[in-house]
Design brief:
Layout (H helix, E strand, L loop, with lengths): L1 H21 L20 H28 L5 E8 L4 E2 L5 E7 L4 E12 L6 E9 L5 E9 L10 E2 L3 E12 L5 E9 L6 E2 L1 E14 L1
Antiparallel strand pairs: 1-11, 2-10, 3-9, 4-8, 4-11, 5-6, 5-9, 7-8
Helix pairs in contact: 1-2
C-alpha cells in the first residue's frame, strides 16, 4: 500500500516539476535566447514578475513537501507487536513471533522495538532470544538491550511517561531456509516480574540488496 501511495506522490511531483519548468519569469516579453539579456523592467511589469516569482516559490514549497512524503519508510515484510500484561514481564510470559520466509536470496534487517516506562529502574534489559528454524533447528542466545547511556539518559524517543526505542538485532542478513520461523523472546533478568516494560515489536525489513 505504501508503495502505491509513493508512486502517485512521485507522479504528482513530476507534474509540479513540469509546471515549474514551463513557468516564465515574466509575461511582458518572450523568454530571451541563450546569453541574450532581457530588456529593463518597466514599473507596470514589476508586479507581474513578483507574482510569477511568488508562484515559483509556492511550487518550490510543494516540491519540497512531496519530496518528504515520497521518502517512504522501511519496507517491513513482518511487523508484529506484543504487549506485556500490566507492564510487568515475568519469566513465564514468553513472546512468540512467527513469520514466513519465501526468498533466501534477499537481504534483511532484523529490528526489535521496545516500549518502556520512564520509571524503569535499569539501564539495560537482558533477554533470551530463541530462534526455531523450518528444519526444526533451534538457536538460543542471551543479549543485553541497552535502554540508557552511561549517564542515565534514555536512548529512545520519549514522551511524558514512556519511551520507544528501535534496536537493530541483526543487519544485512539472509535466511538460509525457506519456510516458517519462530522467534521466542523471554526476559532474563535477576528479578521477576520486571516492571516498566510495556510492549515489544519485531520488525523485519526487506532491503534492496541480495546475497
Amino acid at each position: 500500500m505504501s508503495r502505491v501511495i509513493c508512486f502517485f506522490l512521485y507522479r504528482f511531483q513530476e507534474l509540479l516539476v513540469s509546471l515549474w519548468r514551463e513557468m516564465p519569469i515574466s509575461r511582458g516579453w518572450n523568454i530571451p535566447q541563450y546569453l541574450k539579456s532581457p530588456p529593463p523592467l518597466s514599473p507596470s511589469k514589476g508586479g507581474q514578475v513578483r507574482s510569477n516569482i511568488s508562484n515559483i516559490l509556492d511550487l518550490s514549497v510543494l516540491l519540497i513537501f512531496t519530496s518528504f512524503l515520497c521518502s517512504c519508510g522501511p519496507n517491513y515484510i513482518f511487523d508484529e507487536e506484543k504487549p506485556i500484561v500490566d507492564s510487568n514481564w515475568t519469566y513465564a510470559d514468553s513472546l512468540s513471533f512467527q513469520f514466513e520466509v519465501t526468498d533466501t536470496s534477499k537481504v534483511y534487517n532484523l529490528n526489535l522495538e521496545i516500549d518502556h516506562s520512564m520509571a524503569y529502574r535499569h539501564q539495560n534489559l537482558y533477554v533470551q532470544i530463541a530462534t526455531l528454524f523450518p528444519s526444526k533447528k533451534r538457536d538460543v542466545q542471551v543479549i543485553s538491550l541497552e535502554l540508557a547511556n552511561k549517564y542515565g539518559a534514555w536512548l529512545g524517543d520519549c514522551g511524558s511517561e514512556n519511551c520507544t526505542l528501535l534496536i537493530p538485532l541483526q543487519q544485512q542478513i539472509y535466511f538460509q531456509e525457506v519456510g516458517g520461523y519462530e522467534f521466542v523472546l523471554k526476559q532474563f533478568m535477576r528479578e521477576s516480574p520486571v516492571g516498566g516494560i510495556n510492549k515489544f515489536a519485531l520488525k523485519i525489513e526487506e532491503t534492496d540488496l541480495q546475497k
